[in-house]
């Protein structure tokens, strides 16, 4: 299992979410964050100058089975890309274990919900 953290533009969140769902990534969590970068670039929007070194971002936190790592990374990378400074970063960490609080299952089984008819 791997934990993927991605910091993306807030404006690209819906695109990334749709790409992850289309890639069969079943769940992820996210939060709004702010960060400061070394690259400085000013933007002018409707006469107001914005400093892009400190802009609102979204931090995605996703734990996936090893077979889904590249699929998730490609979905994020392709859908978050603008080609401009500040597109974001993707970090991949080993995830040692996972435990389902409801069922008590452990490991990769907690990350996959088979399609069960009710």
Summarize the structure.
By secondary structure, the chain is of the alpha+beta class. It contains two helices and six strands.
Account of the 3D structure:
It is a single chain. With 118 residues, the protein is an alpha+beta fold. It has one domain: Alpha-Beta Plaits. 19% of the residues lie in helices and 32% in strands. It has two helices and six strands, in the order βαββββαβ. The strands form two sheets. Strands 2-5-1-6 form a four-stranded antiparallel sheet, with helices on one face. A two-stranded antiparallel ribbon has the order 3-4. Strand 3 and strand 4 form a beta hairpin. The radius of gyration is 17 Å and the shape is elongated. It starts with a strand and ends in a 24-residue tail after the last strand. The mean pLDDT is 88.
Instruction: Identify the overall geometry.
Output: elongated
What is the CA–CA distance across the termini?
Answer: 29 Å
Task: Please trace the helix and strand order, writing H or E for each element.
Answer: EHEEEEHE
CATH class bucket: Alpha Beta
